[in-house]
């Protein structure tokens, strides 16, 4: 494990409150969701409501909503933060809001059957961003056949350069726990493990826990988030196993579904408040900024608008990185919009930007030494890219990879090791 | 096997080690004081040889890349390689033959063993061994001859004969070390060591500035550019052998060899920190690296003794390079067993 202080070399500033970002004059909403293309339900010149379904793919249960009320002004290909140029709908802000500024009546979800909840989650487009974004409803659907399940809720970000999950878990603890209890109930979970950042969480009182989870066993497990990695499924399972066997002297259990705080929060909003996924809570940070901010942003808002709102740069920016320093992506177009899986925007200054020049592997062995699951990333890389011979067991070992990216971080040749292993994993 | 069409992008945006380009820059920066010292001590012949070594190394690299149709023609690592070779060549070595030997041996390594990090033979050691074999007379004319190693208190003898210039602060530092450090272990060192570590006045630049080499190694260790496994295990095994079997047995007793003198006499530290763990030539895992270091230390003691050979360590490196694939096979067989249990656990 590596101290986070060695990974994040700039000061991470304390954030006190959630700010609402400026509303976008024009929202750019991608027609792709979870790699599924959705057919537009609206035409050029149509007026749409906030939260209205503007595109869908009935076969895949994928829905896309308008994040703002307004007029459809174009359908065109736009650069997205994921690096792809995707077909998008451009909506010009106009008219009254359906959800923004309105008080919502909470729905009592206990009486809603699971099939209906799954349908609502599909309709609200709730994503599980615990790891690579996936439709939460489809994950729950797959667990319906199992008699008993377990749910793990992570209240911090796997990437220590992002603080959005940690922040909302402090601000909306009750809502997140209710979202988790709803999901636990939907998958017939016997136990729920809530993993929280050691120093930053005040556990709610027992009465609330009993009220929310009733017959489900809930375990609050502290995690030393000052070290990396702690947030992958492998780490979460190890933490749970350690807690169950060492602390409680009980048998360990396999985690059926792992979610992050934002997925639990979105579930709460979708089912209890009937609000589809139209906004994101985003952590804006980096040493090019004077301050760190947590913003509530409408999906489709151009990143440029957010950067201007945060107050511009205090140092010359080198790159704008979406979704964290570890597994994020540098965007090529500042007009790229916020998407449903965006969690953070980090801007690093040219002064602190690392050298990423790729060179051939120097066989230093650092990736072997740092790998927490003891695989040999360099050998798998050479096999996949340069077709070096490798034993079947070594190829199979790629399945053990947790994609923590530590191998990349120690690679002086700057090779895309974990990405290649992930590719091989998919191909196996 | 199904094929996917995913875009692989460069990430992360935070690293725990410097890139190869930056490592090369840092190595050049930590070696710069030694080059400057050569200039201040008017060792112009050495500087010319270093310049030629750098030029030739880079020329070979460019030609190799042109023939292989590589995108990038220039590699900073070639500059580092040239500088290190230049630092290990005696200033008396004739320029033209040196240049020809360098071009031939570096090309041989590149074409027969592969480019940087692909060659299992250390190109620097290989080049220096060829240079030595074709002109061994130039390596043997040096201050560090067997006579001095085998006498009692060689440093004092060198000082007495005026072959070593005593620094004015030498006595003060030695007194301080004797009272504050060595007295606790019942040892004492005689004056002259600091002067010796500062500049041995050797005709081979790498053998001269021991203190600068030590300082450079501290920087490289602290920036995680050099990993501890190989240098530390080498120092332990070599130091242990030197201490246990002193060369001047008529004066010293078994177990009281002069470790400091041995380390600073034949460029041992310089070669261990900068050359022994050359990319591609050493095992990849900690156990293999430790065995590699320990074995190199023992071989070095057999070939170099307590610092009697200026080229012995290059032969040591070539020998351990030959043994390295065996160590890697051993590593691999251990790993295969571990891997089986890891996969079984997962399944």
Query: From N to C, what is the helix and strand string of chain B?
Result: HHHHHHHHHHHHHHHH
Largest sheet of chain A: 6 strands, mixed
| SS elements, strand count of chain B | 0
**Mean pLDDT of chain A, as a whole number?**
90
Distance between the ends of chain A: 28 Å
Work out the strand percent of chain A: 15-25%
Please, what is the average pLDDT of chain B? 85
Helices and strands of chain A: which structural class? alpha+beta
Main interface pair?
Answer: A-B, 63 and 43 residues
Portion in beta strands of chain B: under 5%
The percent range for helix content of chain A is 25-40%
Which shape of chain B, going by the Cα principal axes?
A: globular
The coarse silhouette of chain A is globular
Q: Helical proportion of chain B?
A: 55-70%
Helices of chain B, by number, come to 16
Oligomer: heterodimer
Please report the number of helical segments of chain A: 14
Kindly report how far apart the N and C termini of chain B lie.
Answer: 20 Å
What topology does this entry show?
The complex is a heterodimer of chains A (428) and B (347).
Chain A: E1 2-3, H1 4-7, E2 18-20, E3 26-30, E4 32-33, E5 36-37, E6 39-40, E7 47-48, E8 53-57, E9 62-65, E10 70-79, E11 85-93, H2 114-124, E12 127-128, E13 134-135, H3 136-142, E14 149-154, H4 164-171, H5 173-186, E15 189-197, H6 206-213, E16 217-223, E17 227-228, H7 233-247, E18 257-260, H8 261-272, E19 279-285, E20 293-298, H9 303-310, E21 317-322, E22 329-330, E23 344-349, H10 366-370, H11 377-386, H12 392-396, H13 406-410, H14 417-427
Parallel strand pairs in A: 2-20, 14-15, 14-18, 15-16, 19-23
Antiparallel strand pairs in A: 1-17, 3-11, 4-5, 6-8, 7-10, 8-9, 10-11, 12-13, 19-20, 21-22, 21-23
Helix pairs in contact in A: 2-3, 5-6, 5-8, 11-14
Chain B: H1 20-40, H2 44-67, H3 76-87, H4 95-113, H5 123-133, H6 136-140, H7 146-149, H8 154-160, H9 170-180, H10 193-198, H11 210-222, H12 229-244, H13 259-263, H14 268-274, H15 286-304, H16 312-346
Helix pairs in contact in B: 1-3, 1-11, 2-3, 2-4, 3-5, 4-5, 5-16, 12-15, 15-16
């Amino acid at each position: 494990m590596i101290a986070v202080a060695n990974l994040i070399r700039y000061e991470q500033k304390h954030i006190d409150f959630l700010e609402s970002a400026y509303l976008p004059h024009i929202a750019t909403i991608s027609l792709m969701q979870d790699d599924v293309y959705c057919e537009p339900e609206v035409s050029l010149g149509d007026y749409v409501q906030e939260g209205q379904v503007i595109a869908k793919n009935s076969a895949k249960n994928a829905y896309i909503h308008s994040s703002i009320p307004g007029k459809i002004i174009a359908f065109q290909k736009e650069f997205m933060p994921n690096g792809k140029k995707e077909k998008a709908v451009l909506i010009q802000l106009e008219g009254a809001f359906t959800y923004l500024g309105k008080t919502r009546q909470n729905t009592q979800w206990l009486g809603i059957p699971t099939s209906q909840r799954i349908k609502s989650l599909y309709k609200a487009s709730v994503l599980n961003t615990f790891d690579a974004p996936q439709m939460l409803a489809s994950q729950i659907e797959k667990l319906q056949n199992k008699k008993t399940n377990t749910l793990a809720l992570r209240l911090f970000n796997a990437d220590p350069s992002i603080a959005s999950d940690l922040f909302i878990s402090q601000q909306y603890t009750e809502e997140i726990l209710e979202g988790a209890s709803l999901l636990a109930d939907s998958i017939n979970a016997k136990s729920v493990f809530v993993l929280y950042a050691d120093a930053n969480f005040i556990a709610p009182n027992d009465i609330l826990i009993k009220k929310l989870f009733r017959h489900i066993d809930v375990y609050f497990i502290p995690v030393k988030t000052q070290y990396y990695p702690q947030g992958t499924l492998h780490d979460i399972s190890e933490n749970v196993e350690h807690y169950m066997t060492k602390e409680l002297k009980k048998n360990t259990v396999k985690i059926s579904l792992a979610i992050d705080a934002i997925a639990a929060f979105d579930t709460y909003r979708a089912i209890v408040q009937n609000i589809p996924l139209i906004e994101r809570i985003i952590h804006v940070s980096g040493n090019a900024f004077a301050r760190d901010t947590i913003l509530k942003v409408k999906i489709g808002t151009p990143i440029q608008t957010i950067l201007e709102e945060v107050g511009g740069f205090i140092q010359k920016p080198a790159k704008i990185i979406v979704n964290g320093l570890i597994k994020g992506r540098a965007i090529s177009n500042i007009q790229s919009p916020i998407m449903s899986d965006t969690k953070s925007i980090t801007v690093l200054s040219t002064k602190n930007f690392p050298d990423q020049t790729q060179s051939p592997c120097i066989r230093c062995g650092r990736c072997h030494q740092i790998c927490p699951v003891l695989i040999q990333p360099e050998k798998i890389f050479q096999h996949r890219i340069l077709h070096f011979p490798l034993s079947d067991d070594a190829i199979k070992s790629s399945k053990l990879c947790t994609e923590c990216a530590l191998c990349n971080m120690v690679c002086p040749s700057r090779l895309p090791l974990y990405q290649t292993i992930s590719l091989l994993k998919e191909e196996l | 096997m199904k094929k996917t069409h995913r875009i692989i992008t460069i990430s992360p945006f935070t690293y725990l080690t410097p890139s190869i380009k930056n490592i090369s820059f840092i190595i050049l920066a930590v070696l710069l004081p030694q080059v400057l010292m050569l200039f201040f001590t008017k060792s112009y012949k050495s500087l010319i040889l270093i310049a030629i070594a750098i030029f030739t190394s880079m020329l070979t690299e460019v030609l190799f890349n042109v023939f292989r149709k590589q995108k990038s023609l220039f590699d900073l690592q070639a500059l580092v390689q040239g500088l290190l070779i230049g630092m290990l060549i005696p200033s008396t070595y004739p320029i033209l033959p040196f240049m020809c030997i360098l071009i031939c041996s570096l090309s041989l390594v590149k074409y027969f063993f592969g480019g940087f990090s692909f060659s299992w033979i250390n190109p620097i050691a290989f080049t220096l061994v060829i240079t030595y074999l074709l002109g061994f007379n130039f390596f043997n004319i040096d201050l560090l001859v067997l006579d001095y190693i085998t006498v009692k208190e060689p440093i004092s003898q060198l000082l007495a004969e005026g072959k070593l210039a005593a620094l004015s602060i030498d006595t003060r530092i030695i007194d301080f070390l004797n009272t504050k450090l060595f007295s606790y272990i019942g040892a004492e060192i005689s004056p002259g060591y600091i002067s010796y570590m500062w500049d041995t006045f050797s005709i081979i630049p790498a053998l001269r500035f021991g203190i600068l080499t030590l300082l450079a190694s501290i920087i490289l260790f602290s920036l995680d550019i050099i990993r501890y496994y190989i240098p530390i295990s080498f120092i332990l095994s070599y130091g242990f052998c030197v201490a246990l079997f002193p060369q001047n047995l008529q004066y010293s007793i078994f177990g009281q060899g002069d470790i400091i003198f041995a380390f600073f006499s034949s460029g041992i530290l310089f070669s261990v920190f900068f050359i022994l763990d050359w990319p591609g030539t050493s095992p990849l895992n900690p156990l293999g690296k430790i065995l590699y270091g320990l074995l190199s230390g023992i071989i070095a003691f057999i070939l170099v003794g307590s610092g009697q050979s200026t080229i012995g360590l290059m032969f040591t490196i070539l020998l351990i390079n030959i043994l390295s694939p065996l160590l890697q096979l051993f590593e691999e067989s251990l790993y295969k067993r571990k891997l089986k249990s890891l996969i079984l656990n997962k399944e």
